[in-house]
Specification:
Layout (H helix, E strand, L loop, with lengths): L2 E3 L2 E3 L5 E4 L9 E4 L3 H20 L2 H17 L1 H12 L3 H25 L3 E3 L2 E7 L2 E5 L7 H12 L3 E5 L5 H13 L7 E3 L4 H9 L4 E5 L2 H10 L7 E5 L4 E5 L5 H13 L9 E7 L2 H13 L22 H16 L3 E4 L14 E4 L15 E7 L2 H9 L3 E2 L1 E5 L3 H10 L4 E4 L11 E2 L2 E2 L7 E2 L2 H5 E7 L18
Parallel strand pairs: 7-8, 7-10, 8-9, 10-11, 12-13, 12-18, 13-16, 15-16, 18-19
Antiparallel strand pairs: 1-2, 3-4, 5-6, 6-23, 14-15, 17-21, 20-22
Helix pairs in contact: 2-4, 3-4, 3-6, 4-5, 9-10, 12-13
The structure holds nicotinamide-adenine-dinucleotide and succinic acid (SIN).
Amino acid sequence: MTHCIDGEWFVGTGSLRQSSGPWQSRTLWEGREPDAELIAMAMRSARSAQQEWAALEREARIEVLRSFARVLERESEAMSQCISEETGKPLWESRTEVSAAIAKIDISIQAEQERCRQFSEGNLGLTHRPHGTMVVLGPYNFPLHLPNGHIVPALLAGNAVVFKPSEKTPATAHLTMQLWLQAGLPKGVLNLIQGGRETAQCLLDASPDGVLFTGSSLAGKAIHRHFAGRPECVLALEMGGNNALIVGSEFEPEVQLWHIIRSAFISAGQRCTCARRLIVVDTPEARALIARLLETVPKLSVGHWQQQPQPFMGPLIDQAAAQTVLTQQQKLHALGATMLTPCRVSSENAALLSPGIVDITSLSGEFDEEVFGPLLQLQWVPNIEEAVARANASDFGLAAGLLSDKESEQRYFSQHIRAGVIAINAATAGASSRLPFGGIGASGNHRPSAYYAADYSAWPQARSQGPLSSEQQPIIPEGVKV
Ligand code: NAD
Ligand code: SIN
């Protein structure tokens, strides 16, 4: 069974989809796309369940969310294995995703309390109200944690959700839905619709009250255009980046080497916060650091999610994703990039790429694309000012980092860098759930997620209240002619 509506499972009648993960060892999930009637049913069911859900005391909703955290904790190993098998991430990494998803519940409760303050003081009051039915569209790279980053705050605020996960990770979404039902979430409050882009578009056409999206900039912009002239629909668009990591003129080489590797290659480069560009202030120390990087990167372990000892990184989500990275690498080569240690496909698996580094210092044209894989573009610059200018020379503005112990460089970077998530002497990837998470430019629409997800999950209602009408003073001052 494929789609979950009102706590019941339904098969679709559209085209057949399968998921078997990058290793293709077995079929993990199989199902048919929904037809228009099933999508309409999911929206109707959510709309009708939402009213009762929103009418519950906040504490009752919290109890269900905490119950989900307990169920997820109990099933954490099954969930980690499911994520690893479906995405190819090493097991150590999927386990961190599951832990983050469990921790998300309490963080979301705390965030809502802080961001959506309720009060009643004298004649003034403030409360927050849910929008209604939200469509959540998820990406494949964190198939549990990122959709839940929208779903949990939306449910907490009293919304219902229709969730369409990435078509590349349906098995993880199926298991997630089962766990929500086991946690006692009332029927219809969360419905699951599986499918691809056309299915997502049908959901957009079903007049949701909000669309909470994490994915590529291309898709986010298409969603934004779809709702042009419809301000009544809340859009939270968490999109991609072309993130720069700067190496300044003073640093501790061994520590910074590992920050670079983690920033560029964790999750095989499939994190939105991964560093795509390494902009290095040209010093003898930096030349030595890059030489060490070029020695170390080809030795990084790349392999199967169950391999022991565990590999640093696995394959890309599929062969098509690997081909896209190789095509982008080819494009850089044609523009004049020097192939220092290029990404190569493994003979073991066509989705498995070795980590690559190319030098783009003398590129003859523009290249401002997100490379969603393990390819790092190196660029030499004379000073920090030029480094920050190059970092900002992008339509995107998601993440950026600086590796430098020099206070003046840290200050200059913090003041001038245009990115929503910045890291100083830390990896760009591995953002905290305790902070807002979002980008500017082509990376987001100024509705950051993570700690600020509470903001887009509810709308504020301001109240002023006079005394009983029998106690009212005349409203028009004496002496004014009406
Ligand atoms: P994607 O944009 O291809 O798909 C994301 C979701 O949107 C999927 O559910 C997909 O079916 C749906 N979709 C695709 N095209 C659509 C359209 N035209 N209209 C409506 N829905 C559409 O993204 P992906 O390949 O799954 O994920 C990788 C991308 O996500 C990268 O660009 C990465 O940077 C980005 N990402 C961003 C964040 C963030 O928080 N900013 C986090 C993780 C990933
Ligand atoms: C992501 O959302 O893709 C990555 C988050 C992070 O690890 O910084």
